[in-house]
Description:
Blueprint (H helix, E strand, L loop, with lengths): L2 H4 L3 E4 L2 E4 L10 H5 L2 E3 L2 E4 L6 E3 L1 H14 L8 H15 L4 E9 L13 E8 L9 H4 L1 E5 L20 H13 L4 E5 L5 E4 L3 E6 L2 E5 L9 H12 L4 E4 L5 H4 L2 E6 L3 E8 L2 E2 L7 H14 L10 E3 L1
Parallel strand pairs: 8-9, 8-15, 12-13
Antiparallel strand pairs: 1-2, 1-7, 3-6, 4-5, 4-6, 5-17, 6-7, 9-10, 11-12, 11-14, 14-15, 15-16
Helix pairs in contact: 7-9
Amino acid sequence: MGLEENKAKYIWMDGKYILWEDAKIHICSHVVHYGTGVFEGIRCYKTPKGPAIFRLSDHVDRLFNSAKIYRIDIPWTKAQISQGIIDIIKKNGHEACYIRPLVYRGYEELGVNPFNCPVGVALITWSWGQYLGPEALEQGVDVMVSSWNRMAPNTFPAMSKTCANYMNSELIKMEALKYGFTEGIALDVNGFISEGSGENIFLVHKGVVRTPSMQGSILTGITRDCIMILAREMGYEVVESMMPREMLYIADEVFFTGSAAEVTPIRSIDKIPVGKGKAGPITKRLQQELFRIIDGKREDRYNWLTFV
């Protein structure tokens, strides 16, 4: 289903509750022309104790860091944004939802210089299922290595979750879909493994859990961090490093992570089966451990859940 079928009643815009249909900005807003916005993607899960937002403070921290890199002064504190997210979930009556905080430069001037344009903030919620399809978490997905690379260092800051960067993601995603795949994997400017269009990537090779390092022009994902923590807890060696493309073809297991994708197994890459062509045992174990925390079946020792 599309966004229209899953929309909420209200959107929080600059401290006010606006009806979904009335949440508009001017066509001459700077963000429309130059992509001058930063955002987050956060999940709120249905749990036995009520709705719970996953790693709220970490997402809000990253939102502010993304803005800082682009010299955007957010006119609200972290505490106010966090409370606004909790409040809009309550206002919309969600048991579970996806949350999209968006900070953007608005309507004033249309030159490249953004400094005179006001900064707006919106907090959007809607119902959203599995990002890569309803069967993806169990059965895995078929992907390809994209012909589009991630941005080179010192061009666009990969550590900032900014709207403009996702034009690169769109190219990766569209190419994959047109060739009959669910998703694409991008390489960095030097030909090493980077990430998916909207997901981090992990490989399991000879029992070692591996993931690209920050040198690979990746967004340092929050779910990525969770998986590294859980994998080390389970006794696996976790290595962050630059990896050549061919590691994708000889890995025993490969999976995506992300707030939207959660932990999604990859069953084939460029039509080459990954391992046995299905979710591997370490992938399944990590996936299960993450969801046990979310479902309240395991102690939330890291305080990842914020209850609404």
